């Protein structure tokens, strides 16, 4: 299990990470999601030991991880802004990284390069953004890491390649019990992929939860009633947000849908009532809205 325990970091007088706790299990895909500039990349760079925290610890299987740990050699980080040495090709990087990672597999490298149709002898500097990301991913998976940190990895990938990417990732995680932490804004895709989610805002993980538990907590409903609906709170539910489109209301709730429906029926004649599937994007907006993020309305006048 990978754990971050009470981690704090200041860049001069800017408190970028505030008492971070993160827990990711073996064989788990952990989605690290959050507002722009909230500290996701900075947190990943602490886990991989690019940055040193002011206070707090990082553990893998209860062993403290620092830049001298033997276990850090089984961590692999694919960064957001990819950098490759001048003149390098994927093959030359593979030959170099073979010296750093003891489990680097030539067989997996060839198989994945072929699967993603990456030319291993082409200079990386001449590749497109999406091709570079695929090349970086091929290299990362070939290293057979125990902990894989992926920062905005699907950014710039077309829909077909994204699907291939998720496919490989899921199979590799299942087969080799890798712990994956993936920072991304692609919430619709993470929704289908992640076992657990950490929602970050302004340097804090404001919520960490198994995906299934998150989805039990927040609900979406659509309904239509005779007359104008007025928001109300009940003892077993809270209406987080409601909007009216045509004659139908869409509401996000916390708590019991049944109690909300009962409270509607007590006050109105209910014409339509349906519970809708909830997705990570909706949960994200609700949780960050609760933290006061993105709640303001734009007035064009
Ligand atoms: N080396 C640094 N020195 C000072 N401030 C930094 C440094 N690196 C990052 N920051 C600041 O720390 C904050 C967090 O940045 P970070 O890149 O971790 O955010 P992020 O969550 O990955 O954002 P995004 O989703 O926009 O990529 C930002 O305000 C950024 O300006």
UniProtKB/TrEMBL annotation:
It holds the Pfam family ABC_tran. It comes from the Bacteria. The keyword Cell division does not apply. GO terms for molecular function: ATP binding; ATP hydrolysis activity. PROSITE patterns: ABC_TRANSPORTER_2. This is ABC-2 type transport system ATP-binding protein. Residues 2-227 form the ABC transporter domain. SUPFAM superfamilies: P-loop containing nucleoside triphosphate hydrolases. The keyword Transport applies. It comes from Dethiosulfatibacter aminovorans DSM 17477. Keywords: ATP-binding, Nucleotide-binding, Transport. Gene3D superfamilies: P-loop containing nucleotide triphosphate hydrolases.
């Amino acid at each position: 299990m990978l754990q971050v325990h009470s981690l704090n970091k200041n860049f001069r007088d800017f408190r970028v990470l505030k008492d971070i706790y993160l827990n990711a299990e073996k064989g788990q895909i952990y989605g690290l999601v959050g507002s722009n500039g909230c500290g996701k990349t900075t947190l990943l760079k602490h886990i991989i030991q690019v940055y040193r925290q002011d206070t707090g610890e990082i553990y893998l299987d209860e062993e403290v991880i620092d830049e001298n740990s033997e276990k850090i050699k089984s961590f692999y980080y694919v960064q957001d802004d990819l950098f490759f040495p001048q003149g390098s090709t994927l093959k030359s990087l593979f030959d170099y990284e073979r010296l750093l990672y003891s489990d680097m597999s030539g067989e997996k490298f060839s198989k994945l390069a072929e699967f993603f149709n990456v030319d291993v002898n082409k200079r990386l500097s001449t590749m497109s953004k999406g091709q570079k990301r695929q090349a970086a991913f091929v290299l990362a998976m070939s290293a057979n890491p125990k902990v894989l940190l992926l920062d905005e990895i699907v950014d710039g990938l077309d829909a077909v390649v994204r699907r291939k990417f998720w496919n490989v990732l899921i199979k590799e995680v299942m087969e080799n019990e890798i712990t994956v932490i993936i920072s991304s804004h692609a919430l619709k895709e993470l929704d289908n992929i992640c076992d657990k989610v950490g929602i970050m805002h302004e340097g804090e993980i404001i919520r960490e939860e198994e995906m299934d538990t998150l989805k039990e907590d927040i609900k979406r409903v659509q309904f239509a009633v005779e007359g104008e609906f007025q928001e109300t709170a009940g003892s077993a539910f809270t209406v987080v947000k409601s909007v009216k489109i045509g004659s139908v209301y869409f509401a996000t709730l916390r708590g019991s849908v049944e109690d909300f429906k009962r409270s509607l029926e007590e006050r109105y004649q209910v014409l339509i009532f349906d519970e809708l599937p909830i997705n990570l994007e909706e949960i994200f907006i609700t949780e960050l809205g609760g933290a006061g993020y993105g709640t303001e309305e734009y007035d064009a006048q």
